[in-house]
Amino acid sequence: MGYDIDRFVGYVNEGLLCSICRDVLEDPLQAPCEHAFCTACIHGWLVHHGNCPEDRQMIDVSLLRPLYRYMKNDLNRLQLHCKNREYGCEMVCSLESIDRHERECEYSQIPCSNAGCTVQIQRRNLDGHLAVCEYRSRECPNGCGYTILSAEDTQHNCVAELRTELELLRSEMICRVEEAKHEMESRLDSQRRHMVQKESILQNEIEELKSQMSRMMSDVRSLMAAERQHRQELEQAELEKREL
User: Fold this and answer.
1) How many domains does the chain fold into?
2) Nearest residue to 124 via CA among 89, 85, 83
3) Where is the TRAF-type domain (predicted)?
4) Strands, DSSP E only, in 69-211?
5) Among 36, 121, 238, 242, fewest CB within 10 Å belongs to which?
6) Is residue 157 part of a domain?
7) Is residue 181 part of a domain?
8) Would the pTM of this model clear 0.85, i.e. be above it?
């Protein structure tokens, strides 16, 4: 939708009106046939139609182009009233600067910034409203450190609030202790499994060493037996030599 033509000061050229909504062009696009439309208007039209609403020539979204520069300049120079005129704003701006003004306009209706408050109030009156808003927050005057809403003043109980917080902290501490306990048990189980695995490996190595020692002792005994046999043979040979 375009800008309401009744907001404008003075004459508005027919070529600067949207061919669909008949208001002053907002975010304009132009068809190849040179008819101009608000972007929202022409996109909505082309969902159900495939032609220009003025001369019925076939058009497609891809054929739409920005407004000619001279038309864009004429559009931006138009003077119009702020949309908050009904609330007291008397500002008249060019179309080019109206959005910037309305974002900062003191007569704009804005929501209260306090959570839970649904009041809409003019920006210029916001500070005054915040000072008396029933949803405004403040620190407890009794020193418990809690932030309370004015609407909850009669219900606030420092002792009850602190007891609740203490219970929450206690529950959180118990949970953390349990988590630490489970984590430690998990680590101990992991270390225990690792130690058992290492013990098994060491036991296998010991058995292998015992086997190697057994083979070596057997070899030593065989060598000693062979040496005795060899010595006996030498002694026998020596006796025979003497007899000869």
Assistant:
1) 2
2) 89
3) 101-144
4) 79-81, 92-94, 109-111, 120-122, 137-139, 147-149
5) 242
6) no
7) no
8) no
